[in-house]
Amino acid sequence: MPDRFEILHKDLAGRIGRLSTPHGTIETPGLMPVVNPHLHLIPPKELKEMGADIIITNSYIIHEDAKLKEHALEKGLHDLIGFHGPIMTDSGAFQLSVYGSVEVLPLEILEFQFAIHSDICVPLDIPTPPDVSRERAESELQETEKRLTEAADLERPALLAGPIQGSTFPDLRKKAAAFLRDKNFDVYPVGGVVPLMESYRFRNLVEVVTSAKKGLGSGAPVHLFGAGHPMLFALAAAMGCDLFDSAAYALFARQGRYLTVQGTWKLDEMKYLPCSCPICQSHTLKELMQSPEKIKLLAMHNLYVSLQEMKLVKQCIWEGSLWELLESRCRSHPRMLDGYKRLCAESEWLERLDLASKSTMFYLSPESASRPESIRYSHRIDRIVLSGNVLITDDREADVSGFDHVLHFKPPFGPYPSELAETYPFNAEVPEEPDEAALARAAKNIKRLKEANPSARFSFKLNCRLPDNIGER
Ligand code: GUN
Ligand code: ZN
Asked: What 3 state SS string does 127-183 have?
């Protein structure tokens, strides 16, 4: 079978891809609105018109309802739901995590998903919550792996997902992912993370997802189970998550909450509708509040905002500016900033996945010093061969007579050959006043350059001050 997942563009660990399913090909990163088979807050036909190319529903709910089950078995899932593009089905594992048990055998619910023509089927994994004992995380993971191995051995008429569990143990997550990679699943959801997202533990989320990604390798499509808040999409996509499911658009609407990429507002505490989606365009706040269809309309706004953010994430990946989007999205909440900083700690990993050339970078915060461009240059600066008298300067008007080499100076890179000033990444837009992180990295690079060229004599003409007076030594 040809590869079902094809990567078209990359930025950081993120990518634009194409995933082929029996009911059509979708572009990733993609958002799957969660559809409740019992009641359609937004009719699935409208979901498609709003821009949802793929949806997700729960096969366990269908299986447990005699009428829905019969319809699905006779006429298929797509007829039951009324959506004729790709549909992913979950297995009831989430019910398992909430209620402690489910009334179905693992293979039974998987065979049921095959029988109703689901496009992406999920075996019954065990979603281990965060912070459990290592013993529990290990034994539940063992059971999940046993079930997934059985599932992978079946002849499959559709795509098969292999959920990665392991609670908040990074090494277990990595091991679980490596185990599943060898089983050739079609999609790899990172599971058991809903409690982390609900409690804004984005640092742990980044740890768990990057660990799973390291075990999995970069070629496999990854689904982040339960990630439906648009504030999260840029961060998750930057780590290499390709599929998202949103129950949030509906859950938040039922609570009277209005989603934005910067966070959530309560509708009854708002004064304006700061959005141009069709709902916010055609209603005043008062009309929205008083509408008998308030929940549906709010759900539609929430979904429009989410789908729009996904498009923005794709545009940024395509352009190579996903880091710039992260810079702003991760400043919507202090805990998002924690997650962002945790991702910066994975800068060596990101550097290996990131493209070596893209559009002009904007240095926007101390975190930008951890960008792949900056890390990459630190790795390579010792390739510069110098001899004789070397001037390092941030003054383009400086008198360079008597020097054998002139290097320009721009934090966070530090010294770089002046003839590269107009090329990526040295054409970066940086603040006039470099921050400590940029200066520290520049200073480190000076040190490396000197160590690589012990016979050269270095002089500095710098307007900015370096830490430890490194320039003068
Ligand atoms: N929905 C949210 N989290 C999970 C998970 O870990 N596994 C499955 N199957 N569904 C989920
Ligand atoms: Zn709106």
From this structure: CCCCCCCHHHHHHHHHHHHHHHHHHHHCCCCCEEECCECCCCCHHHHHHHHHHHHCC
Ligand nearest to the CA of 275: 2
Kindly report, residue by residue over 215-244, the tens digit of the pLDDT: 999 999 999 999 999 999 999 999 999 999
> By three-state DSSP, how is residue 358 classified?
coil
Residues paired with residue 6 on neighbouring β-strands, in sequence order: 18
Q: Would you say the pTM of this structure is higher than 0.90? A: yes
Residue 288 to residues 148, 240, 252, 297, 378: CA-CA distances in angstroms? 46, 37, 15, 7, 54
List the one residue out of 397, 394, 422 whose CA is nearest residue 407. Answer: 394
pLDDT at 3: 79
Hey, what CATH topology would domain 5-350 get?
A: TIM Barrel (3.20.20)
**Shortest-distance atom of ligand 1 to CA 91:** 9
Q: CA–CA separation, 180 vs 148, rounded Å? A: 8
Which of 141, 194, 241 for mutating ligand 1's site (highest number of atoms within 8 Å of CB)? 194
Q: How far is residue 340's CA from residue 367's CA, in Å, rounded to a whole number? A: 8
| Residue 469 confidence (pLDDT) | 56
Give 466 Cα–ligand 1 centroid separation in angstroms: 50
Scored b (16 or more CB within 10 A) or e, 379-394 reads eebeebebeeebbbbb
For residue 288, the CA-to-ligand 2 centroid distance in Å is 11
Catalytic pick from 11, 90, 125, 245? 90
What spacing in Å lies between the alpha carbon of 267 and ligand 1's midpoint?
Answer: 29
Q: Percent of the chain having pLDDT more than 70?
A: 98
Ligand 1 site residues, Cβ closer than 6 angstroms: 90-91, 93-94, 122, 125, 127, 163, 191-192, 194, 225-226
| Per-residue pLDDT, 473 | 43
pLDDT of residue 386: 97
Task: Tell me the CA–centroid distance for residue 302 and ligand 2, in Å.
Answer: 7
d(CA 166, CA 291): 45
pLDDT at 122: 98
In 3D space, the residue among 151, 139, 306 whose CA is nearest the CA of residue 237 turns out to be: 306
The verdict on whether omega for the bond into residue 425 sits within 30 degrees of 0, i.e. cis, is yes
The structural domains of the chain, with segments of one domain joined by +, span: 5-350, 360-469
* CA contacts within 13 A on the Cβ side of 466: 27
Cis peptide before 412 (omega within 30 of 0): yes
Which residues of the chain carry a pLDDT beneath 70?
1-2, 468-473
Does residue 338 have an active-site annotation?
no
Closest-lying ligand 1 atom to the alpha carbon of residue 90: 9
